[in-house]
Amino acid sequence: MAYSLSALGRSKGVARPQLAAAGPDKGVHVTAKDLVALEAQARDFGFLRKRPVNRLLAGRHASHMRGRGLAFEELRNYLPGDDIRSIDWRVTARSGKPFVRVYDEERDRPALIVVDQRMNMFFGSRLMMKSVSAAETAALCAWRVMALGDRVGGFIFNDSRIDELVPHRSRAAVIGFATALARQNGELAADLEIERGTAQLDKVLETVARVAHHDHLVIVISDFEGHGPRTRDLLLRLTVSNDVIAVLVYDPFMLDLPESGEIVVSGGNLQAELAMGHGRVRTGITDFARQHGEELLAWQQELGLPMLLVSAAEETAPQLRRTLGQLAWRQRRR
Description:
This protein is an alpha/beta fold and 334 residues long. The chain folds into 2 domains: 8-55 and 108-333, Rossmann fold (3-Layer(aba) Sandwich), CATH 3.40.50; 62-106, no CATH class. The chain contains 8 helices and 12 strands. The strands form 3 sheets. Strands 7-6-5-8-9-12 form a 6-stranded mixed β-sheet, sandwiched between helices. A 3-stranded antiparallel β-sheet has the order 1-10-11, with no helix packed on it. Mean pLDDT is 77; it is low at 1-23, 49-60 and 62-69.
């Protein structure tokens, strides 16, 4: 049976995780007030589209549809069936041939932020739990989307429940999103008794796919535990007609395990004690973590899916600003 390092239990000979000392719950749980306060830090980053509009995320975006919209794109020869209202009569008179004006229709791009608050996210070795890091990332993205004029909503899911928030363009909508997110985050506990399924990640992505038919920005924030071929297929389906960004939240503990002592790991109702003094134990966990990461990063090439890394051992806002800046630079280079 595979166990996830979802929460550290008692330890022997191993220092317990050192979380921030600004309060007894700091780094373990997050409040709606904490997430609302991140509004001031949600600046200087954006999300590039597959089809750039000469700027980063803005309130309105050029769609893949052409029609009588707002942004002039080109002149071309008249073709049978074209709307005669599109004919440019001045150019037609000068050239002696009918020409039409083609416009690039501008549309809103609602954002759906998908946030993982399952038990596997309730782990942190240094600064904060992965669940807190994911919540902060989601709030920062929500504030940025709202500030630049788009509607924002999303899905918050744990091992048994999916909360949907319909996209709206208002500060109240982001506060509502933060409140729902803090509520689920506060339900996580090391001794929480849950029935863990492997299909919850795919279930929420199926729900997103039913909502995001086209022209959405979809941001999936998770450690992607339980991913498989179905997860890949669902993300591919979403990327066909939407802009999708995956944010992989991780903890470096998995890649830098202690060389001695024992730790207790929990998989929800079950626990197991692992002896870090055994090289095979350390190697097995590290290899599993690296393989997990490599499979997910491969989606970046295979699906054209940006996969951003966010560590629970570092402050969230500077990481997000840095990683999104790198993404923008790479896309501009293409």
